[in-house]
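Q: I have two molecules that I believe assemble together. Could you output structure tokens for the complex as a whole instead of separate predictions?
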Amino acid sequence: MKFDTPATTNPIDQLKVVGKPTDRIDGPLKTTGMAPYAYERHDALENVAYGYVLGSAIAKGSIKATDVSRAKAAPGVLTVVTAQTAGKLGKGDFNTAKLLGGPDIQHYHQAVAVVVAETFEQARAAAALIKVDYERAKGTFDLASAKDGAPPAGKDNPDTAVGDFDKAFADAPVKLDETYLTPDHAHAMMEPHATIAAWKGDKLTVWTANQMVAWSRGDVAKTLGIPKDNVRLVSPYIGGGFGGKLFIRADVILAALGAKAAGRPVKIALQRPLMFNNTTHRPATIQRIRIGATQDGKITAIGHESWSGDLPGGGPETATQQTRLLYAGANRMMKMKLAVLDLPEGNAMRAPGEAPGLMALEVAIDELAEKLGVDPIELRVLNDTQVDPEKPGRPFSQRKLIECLRTGADKFGWAKRSARPGQVRAGRWLVGMGVAAAFRNNLVMKSAARVRLEKTGRIVVETDMTDIGTGSYTIIAQTAAEMMGVPLHQVTVKLGDSSFPVSAGSGGQWGANSSTAGVYAACVKLREAVATKLGLDPAIAEFSDGRVKLGNQSLPLAQAAADAPIVAEDAMEYGDLTKTHQQSTFGGHFVEVGVDAATCEIRIRRMLAVCAAGRILNPKAARSQVIGAMTMGAGAALMEELVVDKRIGFFVNHDLAGYEVPVHADIPHQEVIFLDETDPMSSPMKAKGVGELGICGVGAAVANAIYNATGVRVREYPVTLDKLLKDMPVVA
Amino acid sequence: MADTEDLSLSRRDLMAAGAASAAIAGAPATASAATPDAPHLAQVTFKVNGQKRSLTLDTRTTLLDALREHLRLTGTKKGCDHGQCGACTVIVDGRRINSCLSLAVMHEGDEITTIEGLGAPDKLHPLQAAFIKHDGYQCGYCTPGQICSAKAVLDEIKAGVPSHVTADLTDALKVTAEELRERMSGNICRCGAYSNIVEAIGEVAGGLSKGEMA
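A: Yes, here they are, computed for all two components at once.
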């Protein structure tokens, strides 16, 4: 099915099941520990050996010699695989660095060997007996010093310009010119990257934790040099991803190689202290923002430049992305530069581009508002645009940014905020409020599904879509139930298996809308087949209450499958509505903080997000996506930073004690409001994404609240108390 | 490092042996280091979810791996394997512990409760039901640890065990959001379901008492 004209009325609009705050259908399994994650498939296979990965002790250089003799002789060891013994390996389309290093080493903790043994304890002990003789080469690890002379980010991320930025900025009566720093961030999902691999002849099955089944199946095949048809990838439950599991990692390739060498299934979970340097991360940025405005607050010039770094062949953190679209202004300039760094591979993490980009832009807007003496919400309202500022003939499909901010202001009590910072005191706490706009583009991806009506009247949906905590199981069941006119409990959803039709997968907040649209397409086909079988006109037959109705006729749905199940498969594909219209999601984040007047300890007291993101398919799961993203945004604002050892070239704090993420004590009760909206340009579901919107702008809202509380502006994240201390107001 | 006679050592002997090995830590590797010993095996018997289980284990096996790999109770999760995330929380003799930081052989005769022992999909524990109702989870990986921890937290409050945020040590302890957040902070949820988790636990506790806002 092709979606190339705006959606009109369709069965989803009944909203009997879709749009309801339904409990997750996978809840009973997850809360009782019965949902099987990748490393836990005792149900699927026996006689599994254990792999343990050794990571490189240098960031750049080569391996002169590897002595695995002691490891091989250790009790229980079945095999040791290194680049020397692995045979020829390719590199996946989605990987920048190789997943098994040697002789060349591209980054610290790049895998250099895997030990396979009868038990985990034996594999771990033996891995410590491998002796690797490295030759260290000089690397580049410091973005700040590599920044000057860094080339443009490449043809996929061209500079953009409208009007004459330089002149307009020079002429502007009010100017802001500031530079903001965001550090490297880790996904730090709770389930480590993990895989069980088993060969049957030349056929490989991997049970793994992965967000994108079809991409990753392809990359497993490409890396191992085997046909894609020989690989089956299974990923029904995933313990978080946030972009870190979009691509294959060392666990899946080394499990496959280890299993081949050992002649047995092998399971590997990347050790937690290995993950931070072995896998991908969100790259650090240096962002310079210049905004010129008239005295009454109209933006006349807006420029955003961003520097980030990655390994050779890698990509930039696209931190200027939102600035192209968020505010009006006739003269515009966006530039991204990409330095070569020999740190671990940079790649997508929740809202790549916008998350760090808004941490800078939305502080800049707050600073500009103060310069102008205008309320920061009013400044945003004043510079709203309903069209793409680079292409004014191209309207937004929906844009309710102003409503988000106004609704939030009302709900949060914004009117009580003191425009002058450092004015509100509650006991030992200096209290402040901050706001930021949330913005994230809506992406649509082709997605397919197979739907089966069984003799019992049960509907079974199969698609290789994944549920990384997003609620895919539930919203797909809701979609099928709505389309086929059955109650939710009569739908079975099977996900995350490459033997199912290829879905959009989970990434870029496209999953919910795109995967359910694919299920919609398959259900349209199934409705046709069912109606035809029952002798009813498919164009006008209604599906409700487990029956198919037309005029006076009303037949049980199950009757159509009385002889044999009916199966339908289809995909939703997209025309050029995303080109004619800019599809984005919007929101407003409101944060209140308390900063201890003496110690500068920062506590978040209240958080509110107001979101406009099309139809909300399940307000309960969507709200959870948003509060989770707000939590991650709070982490980015206050504590998250991969600290670079600039001499040796690695992230020093490579575990969950050193890389601090928010814990219960950091997060207050959180409020989320979804504006009532449908977007007929996005798909027949009229939905968009929220999972990434929720993190966009949070960091800035926290930083702005800290400024409002203290009068100290910190432009280098995370905002920690040591950065506040020297400029804190003197208080009694 | 030591031979199998270790198993019969008393605690005092162990301390003495520890001092001895510390004294020779700087000595060059002996010949035996080149050919690692076969695993030291030991038998341990404990109760898991009310059932008596006997295992013969490599003494290096953690309680976590004994549960997950040997007893195939995979509800208890391995998130970090060194006590930083709380995903492996189980209840041993009424107290919550990180099962990754505890060797299985240390638990002779202990009573261990895992998530599987609290409830099942068709017979949910009130905390499990409340987590579902309040959507106190997303990916589900930290969830068993959160729920086991929550159960122990409510028992700790009931038993009058104070926490870092307990303002008055002489008053009866109340279940406030602050107490729950403080006590649950050893259980990381990267999906960020904290706000919902606290509401779920609060409901099972019979409602949250009003606390002071930080």
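A: One point stands out. The CA atoms of residues 592 and 606 of chain A lie 5 Å apart.
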